[in-house]
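Ticket reopened. Same input as before:
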Amino acid sequence: MNQDEFGFRVRQALNDGAERLDYRTVLRLEQARSRALARQRRTGPATVRLPALQLATAGAPPVDEGRGAWGWVRGAGLVAPLVALAIGFVAISHWQEELEIKRLAALDFAVLLDEGPLEAYADRVFSVLLQDEQQAER
Amino acid sequence: MATREELSEFLAGVERRAFKQAVFAVRDESHALDIVQDAMMKIAENYGDRPAAELPPLFTRILQNAIHDFFRRSKVRSTWVTLFSSLTPENEPDADPLETLEASGDTRTESTETSYEREQVVAIIEEEVARLPARQREAFLLRYWEDLDTAETAAAMGCSEGSVKTHCSRATHALAKALRERGITL
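Engineering reply: fixed in the latest deploy. New output:
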């Protein structure tokens, strides 16, 4: 018997042995397979971490495809920073507006009460303000 | 790109042989299962987008690497175990011997004498395959069980084709001799 023939016969025996695995081993192999399939990599670019802004584009690939029931959490994780950023912009804008109103009110009071310091009239912004007010009165 | 079904079908087709190969190498079913699971995870995570035709050689390589990694980790672990052996009990205090007995039990229902004899022969062949030197066994199994050609086997093992031929030849002779001594002629 040559080497290949011997190898073939051993192979048959080994295949026979592999078919006789006990059910617990078979079950664990099936579970391992299921876990592996749940983590299967999709096409290269689709599973690469996408910039969050690309989520809004129409052609965005389904990043959570095949990720199981927790796919929506991953999606939410990408959208949440965008929402937080938008809220932050609105809050900062509102805060700046309030500050400007307070500053102008204080200036108006000072002018009305004639408490404005002389330096204020030399301030470029203040002179522009006065010009604007004069133009508005006309 | 391999679809989920293709990958599933591929893994289902190779998982038993992969498990047996790991058992032959590490001689422990639990560790062998971990090794196969690691290999499955790696191929799914890292190469799940490859065409189905590319999966067999990739999986073979990943499995062999996983087995080698196991031995590397075992070597490191055994160093620490030797250092701290006096601190660890030899046996788990709550280990149940019945669990081992049950685990090694056979759930098969075959009862004919022929199938029993066949089973014994397969068990002896598996024992002798497991006793082969690691590189010889690896080459023999890849070449004759995984049905890789010499070049593919060499690529999977990271050696030359000449080495593969030498390993296979030695494995075949050693295995044939061992089986003959145990009264088995294939």
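Chain A touches chain B at residues 1, 3-4, 6-11, 13-26, 28-29, 32-33, 35-37, 39-44, 47, 66 (CB under 8 Å). Chain A has one domain: 41-137. Please confirm and we'll close it.
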